[in-house]
Amino acid sequence: MNRYLRAAAATVSGLALAFSVTLAAEVPAAAASTCRTTYTKYKTIKKGTHGTRARSAQCLLRSAGYAVKPDGSFSAADSALLKRFQATHDVNVTGKVYASSWTALLSRGSQPALHRGSTGADVRRLQRSLTASGRYVKVTGTYGSATFKAVKSVQRARDLKVTGNANRAVWRLLQAGDPIVKAKKKAKKKASSSSSKGAKALAFAKRQLGDRYRYGATGPNAWDCSGLTRGAWKKAGVSLPHSAKAQYRRGKKVSKGHLRKGDLVFFYSGISHVGIYAGNGKIIHASRPGKPVGYIKMKYMPYKGARRPS
């Protein structure tokens, strides 16, 4: 009986060894370790690409639920699985891991609300995906000014409310592979349509949307009303004083019916507030503590006049 037991034990042991060898052959050692996903540049990976970045792309695909071996050699089978991922996540289906696919792969997962001061793995995930999209952010795990600016870039490019905070709308864009090239093309088109000083001043003001208000502030991340208009027109090559009343004495007087984008618009008795005309009866302004730089319709404040700096 002992002889039979010994034989059975040997058989079981042999089967276990064979199974472990099979697993080792199917899942390389690299698959068991954490793959590198942090780079300053995310280069395009296609069929036949070898190396660390190819392994990173494979690892990300595997973590997304696809049967990929992270062996550092991006195969035709890997490309086919990537196409499935791209189709599922509304990314252009190419079979290549380029900016959009990197962004979608790196940002995949939950959509937590993040803001200045947030820390942890989700912040690192956000920072990696922002970098992949073309908005380089050092991966620190802390939501600082660079991350804040990069998120504002995403929001501005897609006409979202510009807050600098990562909300569900920002995550959805990144998880659909939103690359910066779209924003660059849009900005180039706008720049070619008008090269006037007013357009330059307005463009600067738009880039500050979402920044906080602070009395006496002149940037770069906080403004008061005349500090914002002064900074905007300085970008256009025109020097203005830091005072709404003093700015009202500069440049050409403009009637309400002839306002152009970039003109300075003044409000309240004694000329105590100023904003930059943005078109369609709206201005961009820094209003008061607790309210970030934003748009407002002119009709909501008592209009006193307008000037076109020169």
Specify the helix fraction band. 40-55%
The CA-CA distance between the termini, in Å, is 106 Å
- Could you report the average pLDDT, rounded to the nearest whole number? 86
Class by alpha and beta content: alpha+beta
Sequence-ordered SSE layout with sheet pairings:
Elements: H1 2-26, H2 29-32, H3 52-63, H4 76-88, H5 99-107, H6 121-132, H7 145-157, H8 168-175, H9 180-193, H10 197-207, E1 212-213, E2 222-223, H11 225-235, H12 244-247, E3 252-253, E4 264-267, E5 273-279, E6 282-285, E7 294-297, E8 303-308
Parallel strand pairs: 1-2
Antiparallel strand pairs: 3-8, 4-5, 4-8, 5-6, 6-7
Helix pairs in contact: 5-6, 7-9, 10-11
Verbal overview:
The chain has 310 residues and is α+β, with helices and mostly antiparallel strands. It folds into two domains: 162 residues, Orthogonal Bundle (Muramoyl-pentapeptide Carboxypeptidase, domain 1), CATH 1.10.101; 114 residues, endopeptidase domain like (from Nostoc punctiforme) (endopeptidase fold (from Nostoc punctiforme)), CATH 3.90.1720.10. 44% of the residues lie in helices and 10% in strands. It is built from twelve helices and eight strands. The strands form two sheets. It has a six-stranded antiparallel β-sheet. A two-stranded parallel ribbon has the order 1-2. The longest helix has 25 residues. It is elongated. About 15% of the residues have low confidence.
